[in-house]
Amino acid sequence: MASVLKRDSVFENIPSIKAKTLRINLNPDIYGTFAEIGAGQETARHFFRSGGASGTIAKAMSAYDKDFSDAIYGIETDGRYVTQARLKTMLDYEMQLMEERISRENHPDRLFFSYANTVATIDFSKRYKGHGWIGIRYQLDPTQKEFDEIILHIRFKQNEARLQQETLGILGVNLIYGAFYKYHKPKKMLKYLYDHIDKDTLEIDMINFSGPNFKDVDNRLMSLQLIKNDMTDAVMFGPDGNNLLPAAVLYKKNILALRGSFRPVTKVNLDMFEKSYDIFIRDKGVDQNNTIVIFEITLSNLKASGEIDEQDFMDRAELLCSLGHSVMISKFQEYYKLVEYFNNYTKNRIGLTMGVNNLVDIFDEKYYRHLSGGILEAFGKLFFKDLQVYLYPMKNPDTGQIMTSNNVKVHPRMKELYKFFKYNGKVMDIIDYEPEVMHIFSRDVLKKLMNNDEGWEKMLPEGIAEIIKERQLFTRKADNQETE
Fold first, then answer.
1. Same-domain pairing of 108 and 173
2. Which three-class secondary structure state does DSSP give residue 120?
3. Can you tell which superkingdom this protein's organism belongs to (predicted)?
4. Which residues contact 415 (CB under 8 A, 6 or more apart)?
């Protein structure tokens, strides 16, 4: 095993960027290439400056010209350059060259790596702040056949290209250093990416780990860390468990979002989704093939019982993914913030599916006291465009009355405001609901499940109860994957 795998505590304190690059440069086994497009050779520059780079850097390049870049890496199907696909192409190409040109017989202990980024910094008009894809493909053992890989997406918050370039260079060093020396602590490694970087200058909104040394890393849990560490406001992952870039998934899409605890997902949740989706796609302005459905959980919901229970989060995610859904975790406790976020990426139709209680909360002034314009400012952001609320009815447990948009009770001061949105067609009742499932609430199912009571299985969608039993979901203690 190469010397890089030795775990020591000498560097537990935050080392300087020079110390990080020098440690890598002085390791005789670490050897690879740098391919940086869009912001200069900012990462490689740090390695050159620290000294001893000849033992580390096989090649450093910047294929700035698009024609030249296409001649090296080929043309992407979408014709774009700052994409995950382009980054993957770069990593593939550069690593293949390493293996072809460096003899294993002459260098049996070499640990190959390929670092790449494709970035667009802020434009001259300062309308677009800039973003980019960064990744490293590498090995921790010269005999391993499959490479490890870490890929992340960033958004710049600084207003000068020069500052963005400097930030990118530091981030690149942190990533390479972490990949070799902190790989066994992936959650901590995420925090180390911000060494010597102010969080106000950079957002990391997606990261994926893959490869033999990350086989026990669940990328959904890594998404959760991005939110917990204030690195971003929202993350998404798909049914396969891999993290998705929200901007790419939501771009110019029609969006139907269903918020809930999904602890566990119930027949009511599924009925809400299915019935609202049927209404949504029948809208003449909605193209079904350009529509995405999102099951959203707020960070505050995950913290409902105190600190976030990561195992509880994973159990919820497991069930939603098993049903084939994309999941979003967000910091947006208020609905208007969620809609604002969606509006950053699409101007198409947005639908929100919710229950009566959620609608009542929207018209509660206490959630908007921090806004100078109060509830009117929030509603201007929530309903300023073609947004539709799909309301699922609720049965009053005391009277048995079915509560809909027609008889919902909002605060007296909010009645006229509610009428305005109701009569302007912003709230639509789901009328073909399943009456026999209306009594089901996730909290009641969870209570029955944990107390081993009978009958909870019938409250869940087909196959969900079997998954819960087989994998012992919601009954296991948290497993934090690594020592904090």
1. yes
2. strand
3. Bacteria
4. none
The residue range of the domain holding 195 is 17-217
Say what percent of the chain tops pLDDT 70: 94
Structure tokens given for 393: 């009815």
The SS3 call for residue 223 is helix
Q: Which amino acid is at 413?
A: R
Whether residues 149 and 262 share a domain: the answer is: no
Average pLDDT over residues 280-291: 94
User: d(Cα 45, Cα 51) in Å, to the nearest integer?
Assistant: 11
Q: What is the pLDDT of residue 273?
A: 97
Of 106, 108, 72, 104, nearest in space to 91 by CA: 72
CATH number reported for the structural domain that contains residue 321 in this entry: 3.40.50
On whether both 268 and 150 belong to a single domain, the answer is no
Radius of gyration of the chain, Cα coordinates, nearest whole angstrom: 25
Q: Domain total for the chain?
A: 2
43 pLDDT more than 50: yes
Q: For residue range 44-92, list pLDDT tens digits in order.
A: 999 999 999 999 999 999 988 888 889 999 998 888 899 999 999 999 9
Count CB atoms within 10 A of the CB of residue 477.
Answer: 6
Identify the CATH number of the domain in which residue 120 sits.
3.90.950.20
Amino acid at 111: L
Q: pLDDT, tens digit, for every residue of 435-478?
A: 999 999 999 999 999 999 999 999 999 999 999 999 999 986 54
**Which residues fall within 8 angstroms of residue 369, CB to CB, at 6 or more apart?**
none
> Is residue 288 domain-shared with residue 196, that is, in the same domain?
no
